[in-house]
Amino acid sequence: xxxxxxxxxxxxxxxxxxxxxxxxxxxxxxxxxxxxxxxxxxxxxxxxxxxxxxxxxxxxxxxxxxxxxxxxxxxxxxxxxxxxxxxxxxxxxxxxxxxxxxxxxxxxxxxxxxxxxxxxxxxxxxxxxxxxxxxxxxxxxxxxxxxxxxxxxxxxxxxxxxxxxxxxxxxxxxxxxxxxxxxxxxxxxxxxxxxxxxxxxxxxxxxxxxxxxxxxxxxxxxxxxxxxxxxxxxxxxxxxxxxxxxxxxxxxxxxxxxxxxxxxxxxxxxxxxxxxxxxxxxxxxxxxxxxxxxxxxxxxxxxxxxxxxxxxxxxxxxxxxxxxxxx
Length: 327
Prior knowledge:
Shape: elongated
Pfam family, one: ATP_bind_3
Largest sheet: 6 strands, mixed
Family: Belongs to the tRNA(Ile)-lysidine synthase family.
GO biological process, one term: tRNA modification
Number of helices: 12
Low-confidence stretches: none
Number of strands: 10
Structural class: alpha/beta
Main location: cytoplasm
InterPro entries: Rossmann-like_a/b/a_fold, TilS/TtcA_N, tRNA_Ile_lys_synt, tRNA_Ile_lys_synt_N
CATH architecture of the largest domain: 3-Layer(aba) Sandwich
């Protein structure tokens, strides 16, 4: 077995400490061809003899540009040359928005995780990505869940606890480290030219805003934002756990609805988490902050009071001691 570098050992330590992966697992690697995903794939391959993993690779071509399609062809050839089991998916129709592209990409990951019977989907997000996500979500407006959303692991489908785990073994590394690793190992990284397009707000944040903040406010900005995300993650997990304990006391599935008295007596943070969980069950999509707050207001409202209409023709109405969802 080849000797492991300090970077390999750091990633292996994170895998063990965070309990991300287990020996003998079948892994699906989300592979863009950029430096982070190349670094991830190489480290997993180097650790494979010690862990006995079976590694499968998926690349998604969004067809946003001719360059992206050329990248897909190049990566497919390289993966074939390496003898790695892989698939390349091409978007049809093309999803022009980030949210639509992400949803399509996750659909492909779910499909291939099932096809190859993979229990973990491994992604190459780094601490640099986590810092950017924290600041991006803060600027857009979000709570603790959004600020700490890029975590070490989560379910591929957050509504399905049986879905594969998304794991991020590189969250302890920064982007400059993955770049250095790829250079040292002469990996054929494909540069994503769209990452330089300042028309995309996320690119402007990464290329202009964060360097400015580092220069004028905090040279260790990425580390500071990662610490904040870690702290908020632990606090959010506490609220979620306490809300889970309260849930059987307030949820009435037959209605469906919530008992107002015990929920009204709970702290506001728990009220919001329970309301978010309830609305996520009855609505077609996760609720917004305003939709959660509309439900919270009804906990103290008079009988017969109702919320504004929610998506899908749903609304909440006070019926006695219950807050009931109608459709």
